[in-house]
Design goal:
Two copies of one chain form a homodimer. Chain A is of the alpha+beta class. Chain A is built from eleven helices and four strands, in the order βαβαββααααααααα. Chain A has two domains: 77 residues, Glutaredoxin (3-Layer(aba) Sandwich); 143 residues, Glutathione S-transferase Yfyf (Class Pi), Chain A, domain 2 (Up-down Bundle), CATH 1.20.1050.10. Chain A is 58% helix and 9% strand. A four-stranded mixed beta sheet of chain A has the order 2-1-3-4. In chain A, helix 1 runs parallel beside helix 3.
């Protein structure tokens, strides 16, 4: 039976923008597993699978329900050991956590600055109201004020990715010759930006741009098939 | 026969300040190997082991001579597979490279801003002249001008280490329950600062400070035995 994955979407169910869901989507593709996506809007997240305060991604694999992309990756690694590894050993599993911490602490806030209002605009009325209320409580200002605070270019993002750029000049993936979960951890926020932003602020040149293009094409191009905000606008 | 390690020192041969040499020193300790240190000053580095343009650390293990802390760690891992692993598998070996790129791109420049002139002052006259000439050519300004550009507090360094701080709140080492080479990669620049800086700018509280203290005490306290600049001044 195929694994179910609940993924965050906009009013258009093909508009899958969550960085965390992309990490799980690529983890499933990496393992070569069958899965069915269940597009899920913000207001439906907390009640998924009868659970309280669930988050996305959530997966159901037979009787097992779990959430959080790293926990899911660890589960898939243990459950499907004969499929390609997401970590290549315990050291890779541990050090992936630094990539998560770095990506979420450094890249995610910068991506959010570039497309927070665009995400709002992808939603239907009910979800817009939910999103606005929760984010404005978080930021202490309106979404429009938040949006106006930040220049809509990728200067800061490109600068923040320099450690990645310098590494990817010397090898095709963070995982070496082939990607690991760590690659998907960093792919997540860039795909979030690509799918959400109403203006094209993707890095176009350099090692990170080339690496991102390679990942978009991987697994029959599931990354590239997700329409980009700026072309689909 | 013990492994020889050539380590950068000041006029005082016990003042071992190089972040890269510390990575190798702790790699050798981690593997539980016997080694002899050969304190080496700047002007003697290029001619080490008869080589041209060698760098530190350089090690000699029997007939094998090699340099660069990551290459040395890979060599030790391959050569001494029965000793504790520095990587815990191929994934850990690959992802250690991101830690290197992040540490060198983010932390090293900030540490250099805090103690560049202090390093100069640790050297003898001949090495001071060498260091001044090479660094001033690199920076395009005098060491004193470089020194005056930067506030001598750790605000920027602490901020840069936030991804590390957030991770180490949840686990004792980057490697998980025990350290891996990745831990030494980040220990390196902090020990460089501790040994070199004439003022105490070490983080004192929080998960990074606690982790650093644990590493200083490890392996019979070889890290802590290295005198700190601000206490030894």
């Amino acid at each position: 039976m195929a694994i179910k994955i609940y993924e965050l979407c906009g009013k258009d169910e093909t508009r899958l923008f969550s960085p965390h869901c992309w990490k799980t989507r690529l983890s499933l593709a990496h393992k070569g597993l069958d899965w069915d996506t269940i597009p899920t809007q913000f207001v439906d997240v907390a009640g998924l699978e009868g659970g309280e305060k669930r988050t996305v991604p959530t997966i159901r694999d037979g009787d097992t329900v779990l959430h959080e992309s790293y926990q899911i990756a660890c589960y898939l690694e243990d459950q499907y050991p004969d499929k390609p590894s997401l970590f290549n050993g315990e050291g890779g599993k541990e050090l992936s956590k630094f990539l998560i911490s770095w990506s979420q602490g450094t890249l995610h806030p910068l991506v959010a600055q570039l497309c927070m209002l665009d995400i709002h605009n992808l939603l239907d009325d009910e979800n817009r109201a939910f999103f606005r209320k929760s984010r404005e409580a978080m930021f202490g200002i309106t979404l429009e004020e938040f949006d106006q605070k930040f220049a809509k270019d990728n200067t800061n993002l490109v600068k923040a990715m320099l450690p990645l750029e310098n590494l990817l000049k010397r090898q095709p993936y963070l995982g070496g010759d082939t990607p690991l979960f760590a690659d998907y951890v960093v792919f997540g926020p860039l795909q979030w930006l690509r799918v959400s932003a109403s203006h094209d602020v993707m890095p176009k040149e350099g090692a990170v741009a080339d690496w991102f293009a390679r990942l978009l094409d991987m697994y029959d191009g599931i990354g590239r098939k997700a329409s980009a905000g700026f072309t689909a606008a």
